[in-house]
Each structure stands twice: as structure tokens, then as C-alpha cells.
Amino acid sequence: MTQMTKNIKPASKQSVYLSVVIPVYNEEECLETMYKRLTAVLDKIDKPSEIVFTNDGSSDKSSEILKDFHKRRPHQIRVIEFNGNFGQHMAIMAAFERTRGEVVINLDADLQNPPEEIPRFLEKFEAGYDYVGSIRDNRKDSYILRSLPSKFMNKLRGKVTDIHITDQGCMMRSYSRRIVDLITQCDEASTFITALGYRFATNPTELVIRHDAREEGDSKYDAYRLIRVTFDLFTGFSMAPLHVFTLFGFLVSALSGLLVAYMIGRRLIIGPEAEGLFTLFAILLFLVSVAITGIGIVGEYVGRIYEVVRKRPRFLIKEVLDTQPLIKTDTKKIIQRKAK
185: Cβ–Cβ under 8 A, 6 or more apart, which residues? Predict the structure, then answer.
């Protein structure tokens, strides 16, 4: 039966030290290797841990493989099955709502960020950092198709927003319990997990981690998704696009006014003329293109508002494999009481 989770707090949350959250979308080739390497790392950590998988509407055999993982370790591994594909960040959000750990680490299933780096994140957490970002060292992606556009977008996002993350595209990060609870309170339709975590952190830091080449499966991230994520980040964390367009509109309007004044003065002094017709057409087309661009920017913000006010669920859960029941509670009131 389809269900929606919102403001859900797991029972016995504090009995778990580490939660590892893994979104999965058509990764059947990588899952078994990832499972063996991840569980080997967690078994060496002398503290209670859990793994929360979210199957984001995979069309391959990922669902069957994840269910088998749950059977192997029913008290450590839980699986959330989405009723469709809702995106990487929604898959992480659904898992965040069901984590129990004091520290939560997000990990991709493709093994490009190795699970063997997890102890280094825990060292930073024990040192007092509540948010540990990551920087991919010697990236193994295509430089032209992935690395170069990613570097450009990182710099552009840093200029437009006040979120200064060196490598925003690397999803392997650790969050404290407080940050995860705050993130799950956000009702935004387009949620950028890494940026929210940085915003809510009181003592953030970054860690350079190893980046391996993908050995199995294909990347699910293309240029369009990179641009789409950048638009979501701009419109979700900054009013800069609107401010820049407004200032540009004032400038163009002032120049257009001067041009009109010049044309009127020229007509009165010299008389009517037929020359320069195509120049005026070019100016007109430029102003029309500026207007269309502005409509597009405003539309991005209006669209986000529309998605929020219509109050549709951000994701639908078809099934949850979990040996421990969940207790529904008001997470907002709990955090407010802690703050007091």
C-alpha cells in the first residue's frame, strides 16, 4: 500500500551510532560489491550501525538484490521502496526520516566514493564537527563531460549563493543528528541536501577523499541534470538571479530611454529618416529576448512556489523492510524544546 512519511521519528534512535544512507537507481551491477565492502567497514567499527537503502524506482533487479540484503542482516539493513522515480535527493530525504544514528553518512551506490573512507568522517565527527563535506581527489570522470562542467558550476554557485562548498557534486558527507532532523523538517519540493546541511551546520569542515573510476554500471547523471540541480540551488537558496535581472532591466530601460530621446531629437532637428531600420529591429529583438529571459527566471521561482502550495507528497513509499516499528511524532516541537 502506498504511504507518505512526514515528520516521522524512529524508535530507539539513540541506540545506533552510525547510519549509512544509500540511494539506489538501477545499480544492480554494483550492489553486491558495494554490500561486501561496506559491511566489512562497518564490522570493524566497534559501535552499532545501520544501513538504509532507498530504491528510487529502479527498473532492473536492484529491488530484489536489496531485499536479499535485508534478509542477510534484517536488524542492520532496512530498505525503502519508492513507488516511482523521485530523484536522488528525495531518496536521501526518505532515508533521513528513518535513520536512528547519532551521525548519518550519505554514500552513493556506484562505489566511486569508497566506503573505506567512512572512518575518516567519523574521526572528524568525534573531533567536534557536525557537518563534514567532501572533495573528490583526482576525479576519474570524463574531464570535458563531467569534471569541467562541475568545476564551472561549483564556482558559479559559490558566487550566486552564500554557500561555499568546494565540491557540491560529491554526495558522500556526514551529518549530525541535529542537522538531519532539521533537514527532514523542510517541506521544499526541490531539496538540495548538501546545501541544507551546510546552512544548518554550526561547525562545518571538508575532507579530501579518494575518487575511484566506475567499474560497473553506467552513470545516471548527465549534463541536463547538472544544469537542473544548479537551477534548483539558485532558486532555492538565493534571490540573486532576480536581483541581477532587475538591475539589468533598469540599465536596459535607461539606455532605451536615451535611444528614444536621441531618435526624437534627431527627427526634430534633421527630419525623418529611413536609415538604421535594421539596427532598430536588432535592438527590439534584443529587448524581447531580455524580457523572455526574465519571464523564465521568474517562472522558476513561481514554479517552486506552486509545487509547495499544492501540498502534494514529494515522494511515495510503496514498501518498507524494517524489523523495528516507527513512532510518529512532531519533530519540530522536539527540536524547539531542545533549543529552549
Answer: 7, 331, 332, 335
For cell 535581472, what's the residue? 245
Map residue 256 onto helix, strand or coil.
Answer: helix
pTM: 0.69
In the three-class reduction of DSSP (H, G, I as helix; E, B as strand; rest coil), residue 139 is classed as: coil
| Residue 240 clears pLDDT 50, i.e. is over it | yes
DSSP calls for 283-316: HHHHHHHHHHHHHHHHHHHHHHHHHHHTT--S--
As beta bridge partners, residue 20 has 51, 105
Query: Rg of the Cα trace of the chain?
Result: 25
Backbone φ, ψ for residue 86 (5° rounding): -115, 0
Q: Which three cell numbers stand for residue 53?
A: 537503502
CA distance 5 to 8: 6
The sign of the CA dihedral 33, 39, 42, 46 is: negative
DSSP per-residue letters across 179-217: HHHHHHH---SS--HHHHHHHH-SSEEEEEEE-PPP-SS
Predicted confidence (pLDDT) per residue in 5-24, tens digit: 444 444 444 589 999 999 99
Q: Which whole-number Å values give the CA distances from 125 to 223, 264, 298, in the listed order?
A: 33, 69, 40
**Backbone dihedral angles phi then psi of residue 259, each to the nearest 5 degrees:** -65, -45
Which residues, in sequence order, are CB contacts of 42 under 8 Å at separation 6+?
A: 18, 20, 49, 51, 76, 118
Rounded CA separation 315/270 (Å): 67
Read off the pLDDT of residues 243-263 as tens digits, 9 standing for 90 and up. Answer: 677 777 777 767 776 776 776
Backbone φ, ψ for residue 205 (5° rounding): -155, 175
Pairing of strands 77-82, 49-55: parallel
**Residue 340 to residue 335: CA distance in whole angstroms:** 9
Q: Give the type of residue at 184.
A: T
